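ok trying again, last paste got cut off:
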Amino acid sequence: MNCNTVSFPGFGIGEFTIDPTAIRITENITIEWYAIIICVGILAAYFVCDRLAPRFQIDRDHLLDAMLIGLPAGFIGARLWYILGDLKNFHSFLDVIAVWEGGLAIYGGIMGACIAAFFLCRHKKISMLNLLDLVAIGFMIGQIIGRWGNFANVEVFGVQTDLPWRMGVGIDCIAEYVHPLFLYESLWNLLGLLMLFAYMDSRKFKGELFLLYTVWYGIGRAWMEPLRDSAYNLKIFGLRVNMVLAIVVALAALATLLWIYRKKPARLMLSKNTEASEGAPKKAYESQFDYAMEAEDEADDAEEEEENG
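nice, full thing came through this time. structure:
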């Protein structure tokens, strides 16, 4: 019998039990809190990105298309990446598709979603770099909320510690105190999200926010992976895949940022808006937003004229 008990003694929170099942439809069909929390994270990310889309010159219908295509692609990518890191435990096709037993890797999800976005942008003639800047914010929001699904499952915790914010967990009724890695990652991404919000209207080139997100998340995963319980470490040839990948990706993104800041390729730079409003130039996103609102107003006027016909 598993005892899904949790406590935070450093904060005066005693033991309490978490049932990972939110709704039991039948004996074999259930809806888990993990799934509900992930869905909330996806919806919250889409809601915010939908409101921000005009600032990035992304049509809201195209954003919806990106979500409908990117979600399944990201899910497949997350599953495949997890399988590649743990091949010895997959012996049949049923093992591969048994996602209800856990096993999704965030880097695989990001790669899968980006590949799908590439083909969508080519088909729809959308600026992929603008779309990536927008969805970087969505990725952050989804990860901030989604990590609490791991808390609901009492999983993704670290090695033992006696720090004041330690989390007590009961596995097979044996209590131990560990690093609450789900909380570390959620708070790290929250800080990153606030910085992206503060900077997004000052971005200098297309793709900058996505690169900043990549650097920030990579740094976070790099320092958190050594704290992770060995049961959650994907390894290839004895190397911690996620830690190595996080360091490599973060360094590559940082190098790209520095190269662009120095070279300033014209095709990436955002055009400066020189229109004045009350004697002051508008920011680029403001003119984009005004353009989108004017288009919506014109459409509403046309509908009214047809109705009054």
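cool. DSSP finds nine helices and ten strands in the chain. Residues 273-293 have pLDDT under 50 and may be disordered.
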